[in-house]
Amino acid sequence: MRLAALAAVAGLCCGAAPLKTCPDAPAVKGDRRADKGAVTIASYNLYWLFDGDSDPAAAPWGTPAEATKHAKVMARELDRLQADIFVFVEVEHCSVLDDVIGFMATGSAYRRYLLQGTDYATGQDVALLTKIDPLFTLERTDNRTDYPLPGTACTDTATGSSGVSKHFYAEFELAPSFTIGLVAVHLLAWPDAQARCNQREAQAATIRGMIGEQWAARLASGGVKGVVVLGDYNDYSAEVLDEPGSRPVTRVLDIIKNATTPAMVELSSSVPRVDRYSFGSGGTGELIDHILMTPALADLVSAVGIDHRESASKNQLASDHWCFHATLTLPAATTTTTTGPPSQAPPTQAACPECPAAACASVPPSSSPGAVACPPCGSAGVATGSPASSGGPAAEGAAPCDGGDKAAAPAAGRECAGSLRLWLAVVLVLLAAAAAFAGGVCAGHHLRAKPSFGRQKSFGRQPTFCIDPDPLSPTVVELRSLPSKGQA
């Protein structure tokens, strides 16, 4: 009791220790978007979003009060921007993100995530503020890449290896069966410095390798619809020049763009050149923040821009970067068909029990939505195909009446008769028919051709047989001889 009281007093005097890392995805994923038909993804360097308590010497906030003022200014900007997924750069820890959420008028729609990196010099990290919870806990790679890379134009002769101290990757389901991969990066600064040229290319190669490991196969199979890589690259583009025409000394963007096949697209190409700047002050600057997307994902982009409405200014307690954002209009939801075993099929697609092919008969469609049109077939085995929904034709390739011979459904509406009595009655009918001439004529009953099995070619005249329209009340049927080809 005494220890608890002392701990409470210590908490009041000194404050609780800040939460350094918060990467875990919730067990139940939430999606708090108002419009689930679109998603806006944004990259925003928040300029030393720290708490002002024992900050590194490079941090600009001298006191917690100054840091709080900055956090409130940034909260106001985030309320105005209202992206669905924010990637933040230059964040200290989770507790300062909690402060920002508390200052936001729309904070209740967001959740924060941060996976602590390895930049021990500045203590900065990349973070996530999102209305859509990630599918799994944020992850990162500890891989490193040796430098110099083959074919480099860097003039620095130093050798070594480099990883990426500030990054994470995650996945999001933006719509049913529409999953994307997302990578957030903050690469080494000083884009013009040859002394860091090789290291920065090695960082880009590390990200490229990670993207390939995580998503190459699933991009090819369609399991992941696309990948987006965004954040503060601290580098220029050789392909899409920024407003002042800055040119890179490294191949950083090209290396990362070619992590996928086909290569990713620079969304800045859709921004007018006069507006292509994301870092600076006084209404001008350079483009060092980028959003790269795989082409199929970029095709869904309906709006892209760099928000210059708030002047980037350290003196105004805002940021020295502007927010780079893109909106995707998502494809309409489509119904997917489960192709796995019946145990994995959706509840409305329960498998139909198998019965002999000869027992196929018309079954009146069920009036209940999603009902299975095949009743059980008694002692028969389990069918390999899924039945059609109520009243609809059998699905392509399905075999409602398998009979052990893997017969394809001969026509729409043929389903399992579902009655052992019918099965026995039909066997007797077939035996009688076999003793007759090449078929039979049903007086007052349905005449059906025996279903062909698989795609085998049929030679000669097929025998016919009769089934009473009411499969649950078989009646005596009268067989008559069919004339042969020579008789008519």
Q: Could you characterize what this model shows?
A:
With 488 residues, the protein is of the alpha+beta class. Helix content is 19%, strand content 20%. It contains seven helices and 19 strands. It has helices at residues 2-14, 64-81, 94-103, 197-221, 252-257, 295-298, 420-435; strands spanning 38-49, 85-91, 111-114, 125-130, 145-147, 160-162, 167-175, 178-186, 226-232, 265-266, 279-281, 284-286, 289-293, 301-307, 323-329, 361-362, 414-415, 446-449, 464-467. The strands form six sheets. It has a six-stranded mixed beta sheet, covered by helices on one side. α2 crosses α3 (94-103). The radius of gyration is 34 Å and the shape is globular. The N and C termini lie far apart (107 Å). The model is unreliable at 1-13, 334-420 and 435-488 (pLDDT under 50).
Can you give the mean pLDDT?
Answer: 76
Q: Give the low-pLDDT segments.
A: 1-13, 334-420, 435-488
Work out the strand percent.
15-25%
Major sheet summary line: 6 strands, mixed
Which term fits the overall shape? globular
Total strands: the figure is 19
Distance between the termini: 107 Å
Query: Helix share of residues?
Result: 10-25%
Number of helices, counting only DSSP H or I runs of 4 residues or more: 7
Structural class: alpha+beta
What is the string of helix and strand elements? HEHEHEEEEEEHEHEEEEHEEEEHEE
